[in-house]
């Protein structure tokens, strides 16, 4: 389908440590999105500084990069129509206290510094983040059997 978009999602160290990877994957699968790449890794602080480069002038930048490199993360690429916008809605606000019940952060988080998940905020940042975390040969191309039941 030509109008498919891709987005980058990462379950942060707090989400991994709390055993929430399966719950998070389940929510994206139940929505109808397709997982096309995934890896479980502990990223270096230098890699995370590249990932969060747009936040380099924020006072929390150094601490964020250090925290994100402190433990394993689950990095993923998901595909679907209008996925960046829909995933941002599913995640909830960056601050869990402002997130609605039903959203990932609204249901599973308390503190802004431990908000369990990262998701690309625009198509442009999704493209940049995907290229930073994945090589072309790491993507799996397949057709979901549910596709005709999700899209016209």
UniProtKB/TrEMBL annotation:
- The enzyme's first-digit EC class, named in words, is transferase
* Catalysed reaction equations from the record: a ribonucleoside 5'-diphosphate + ATP = a ribonucleoside 5'-triphosphate + ADP; a 2'-deoxyribonucleoside 5'-diphosphate + ATP = a 2'-deoxyribonucleoside 5'-triphosphate + ADP
- What cellular component GO annotations does this protein have? cytoplasm; lamellipodium; nucleus; ruffle
Which residues of this protein are catalytic?
Answer: 118
Q: The Nucleoside diphosphate kinase-like domain covers which part of the protein?
A: 4-141
Q: What is its EC number?
A: 2.7.4.6
What cofactor does this protein call for? Answer: Mg(2+)
Which residue windows are coiled coil?
none
Q: Which residues bind ATP?
A: 12, 60, 88, 94, 105, 115
One GO biological process term is: UTP biosynthetic process
Q: Which GO terms describe its molecular function?
A: ATP binding; metal ion binding; nucleoside diphosphate kinase activity
Specify the signal sequence span.
none
Key word Mitochondrion present? no
Q: What does this protein do?
A: Major role in the synthesis of nucleoside triphosphates other than ATP.
**Protein name stated in the entry:** Nucleoside diphosphate kinase B
Task: List the source organism.
Answer: Monopterus albus
Instruction: Provide the taxonomic classification.
Output: Eukaryota, Metazoa, Chordata, Craniata, Vertebrata
